[in-house]
Amino acid sequence: MLYPEIENTVKSFDFKQISEERKAILQPLIDFVQTKADSKVGIRLNLICTHNSRRSHLSQVWAQTAAAYYDIKNVSCYSGGTEATALFPMVAQTLGDLGFKIKTLSEETNPIYSIKYSANELPVIGFSKTYDDDFNPESGFAAIMTCSQADGGCPFIAGAEKRIPITFEDPKISDGTPQQKETYLKRSLQIGTEMFYVFSQIKK
């Protein structure tokens, strides 16, 4: 179902590498998804970071891919920031290197990308926006705070049914260094592993 390169990456994910402490951080998201799945209602996840440029996009793409892989129905993943900037090009490049099909739909200062994980599934539309943008759900969603700055600086997310902090280290620290490509890949694989772990725990 997934593109073969992505499928190979997924096979390399080792859930044993996720610490018990980290699994405890992921558990509220598992519980939210499970409750919605049991009720057979839409599962809306809004992955939020300060600039909606790096971690929130990686989290959105990997969560949507994991939901499809494990055949968890009615999952819609979104992303947003406390401010809009642009999806950082290295994020698109990193996903492309892992087998996602990336198409640039618009080359404005805030480019719009189509990000596909499967030949027959809708693409994730990636561009930077605020978490309350019209593109995102107004209510009934879990707000997943992927960076501590947004989590601390945004204590209230209007419309969120549940707020879940799952923070990741910012790969931005490597920008302009020889380690940039490696750092973005490492962060993408960490996020992918954790999102796949979450959806692997959902009982149908």
What is the residue-mean pLDDT, rounded to a whole number? 96
Which radius of gyration do the C-alpha atoms yield? Answer: 16 Å
Order of helices and strands: HHEHEHEEEEHEH
Query: What proportion of the residues is helical, as a percent range?
Result: 25-40%
Q: Could you tell me the strand content as a percent range? A: 15-25%
Largest sheet: 4 strands, parallel
What is the topology, as strand order, of the major beta sheet? 2-1-6-7
User: Which blocks of ≥5 consecutive residues have pLDDT under 50?
Assistant: none
Number of β-strand runs: 7
Please work out how many helical segments DSSP would assign: 6
Give the termini distance in whole angstroms.
Answer: 19 Å
What's the shape?
globular
Classification by helices and strands: alpha/beta
SSE blueprint:
Blueprint: H1 4-12, H2 20-39, E1 43-49, H3 55-69, E2 75-81, H4 89-97, E3 101-106, E4 112-116, E5 124-126, E6 141-145, H5 148-153, E7 160-165, H6 180-200
Parallel strand pairs: 1-2, 1-6, 6-7
Antiparallel strand pairs: 3-4, 4-5
Explain how this protein is built.
- The chain has helices spanning 4-12, 20-39, 55-69, 89-97, 148-153, 180-200; strands spanning 43-49, 75-81, 101-106, 112-116, 124-126, 141-145, 160-165.
- The model has no long low-confidence stretch (mean pLDDT 96).
- Helix 3 (55-69) crosses helix 6 and helix 4 crosses helix 6 (180-200).
- The protein has 6 helices and 7 strands, in the order ααβαβαββββαβα.
- It is globular and about 45 Å long.
- The chain is 39% helix and 19% strand.
- It has 204 residues and is an alpha/beta fold.
- It has a 4-stranded parallel sheet.
